[in-house]
Amino acid sequence: MDSTAQRALRPTGRTVAYDPTRPAPPLHVRAAAVLEAGWTGTSTVPSRGLYPHQWSWDSAFIAIGLRHVSPLRAQTELETLLAAQWADGRIPHIVFNPSVPLNAYFPSPDFWRSSTAGRSAGAPRTVQTSGIVQPPVHALAAWLVHLADPGLSRSRGFLTRVYPRLAAWHRYLLHRRDLGGGGLVSVVHPWEQGMDNSPCWDRPLSRVTPAPARSFRRADLDHGSPEDRPTDLDYGRYVRLAADYRDRGYQDGPGDFAVEDPAFNALLITSEYALARIARELGAAASARQDRAERLTAALVERLWEPSAGMFLCRDVRAGELIPERGVSGLVPLLLPSLPHDLAATLVRTLSGPHFGLGGTTRLVPSYDLLGEAFDPHRYWRGPAWFNTSWLVERGLRLHGERGRADALRKGILHTAGASDFAEYVDPYTAQACGATGFGWTAALTLDLLHDRPAWDRNGVTAIKGGDRG
């Protein structure tokens, strides 16, 4: 952590009277303080109240921000998560802290029963986890963390140790989760995609019989307004899907819910490029990974691009059809360096048009179509703007030469993060804070945008695709 942030976090030992003229701490100091407050000694919780354990893609985003204040902590963040990897390669979406009471979060370890129900899939015996996964941002995070302090990374053998685990993670997804047979990865639960309550899931979820409301207790409602959270009906379906997957021993195969999602697959492709860069750093062959990323991009276009929508859509694998809902997930493929130019240009038009309104009616990217029947500006992933997806879109805009739009979005993210006290998500029109405040990835990605815009252009996905440039 830099000296300014350290001074801001150090207890003074005296009470300071309220002084209305005293200036607020700089944004980077406030963001660093959020991450410091969430640090457990080995990882960072997304939110002390609402999310008191370690979450998979949260930790990847948090590591991307942490690298600017402590590259060692950023490396430790990823190493802690990867230590809970299953023998089949999956990285679980939650790693549970045994010191947290069971009733602090649901579904808790006694629901997932990872060490028993997941035994045949190679769940670890010494730590309790969930049995589902989240988007594969991890290799990208590992590469960017390495770039923050290559000397420290090399002296600790960071990439040497994480590379085999990241490669196994990608093998799991590519070999076990191609449920549609077209080369793309399927998610088997809305929680796996990360955008839990998106209207994109409504159609495939309608086939799922919900678990009875009396069979579970929603701890999330202790920390958030019911109007901001999923409905009891949706939550009952989530619980049923998770319980059925657990009762199958976490074995992958056809089920009631299997969806090819554009953001999940775009992040896998981006991380394949990152793995190629890591392999090259370690003196290993990288061409096969770059070729795979190109093939996956082609499969993404073939299976999920919908010209009439002007964006990528989710595919319901069981029904064999695209889901006609516009979610922010369909804009995330802007991250891909091999995306055809005409498709990238169309995505930019859709992003700035009436369905998402960026640069006009909205400053951050809404999570769902502003004109959609299911749009709700406050309810979880059904309309509010999230900082991680806006960060991904900002990176994609910059990658495809839309520097003016990227700069405006960056400015909007930074202003809204500070004004909302690093909210979990915000109303896309008013920027009113929703969910938790002091949220981990909001603070982390604020740090990244404050410190590393040029470094991404030099060493991020552009350089990953370009071979040895850097």
What can you see in these coordinates?
- The chain is mainly alpha-helical and 470 residues long.
- It is built from 20 helices and eleven strands.
- Helix 9 packs antiparallel against helix 13.
- The N terminus and C terminus are likely disordered.
Tell me roughly what share of residues is in helical segments. Answer: 40-55%
How far apart the termini lie comes to: 25 Å
The coarse overall form would be globular
Task: Write down the overall mean pLDDT.
Answer: 90
**Care to count the β-strands?**
11
Spatial strand sequence of the major β-sheet? 3-4-7-8
Which percent range describes the beta-strand content?
Answer: under 5%
The assigned structural class equals mainly alpha
Whole-angstrom Rg: 21 Å
Q: Uncertain spans, ≥5 residues at pLDDT below 50?
A: 1-18, 454-470
Question: What descriptors fit this protein?
Answer:
disordered C terminus; 470 residues; 4-stranded antiparallel sheet; mainly alpha; disordered N terminus
Topology:
Elements (H helix, E strand, L loop, with lengths): L2 H7 L17 H12 L15 E2 H11 L4 H12 L11 E2 L13 H4 L1 H4 L20 H11 L1 H7 L1 H19 L9 E2 L2 H4 L8 H4 L26 H16 L11 E2 L1 H20 L5 H18 E2 L4 E2 L2 E2 L4 E2 L18 H12 L32 E2 H13 L3 H17 L5 E2 L6 E2 L5 H12 L1 H7 L1 H5 L5
Antiparallel strand pairs: 1-2, 3-4, 4-7, 5-6, 7-8, 9-10, 10-11
Helix pairs in contact: 1-2, 2-18, 3-4, 3-7, 3-18, 4-7, 4-9, 7-8, 7-9, 7-13, 9-13, 13-14, 16-17, 17-18
Summarize the structure.
The protein contains 20 helices and eleven strands. With 470 residues, it is mainly α.
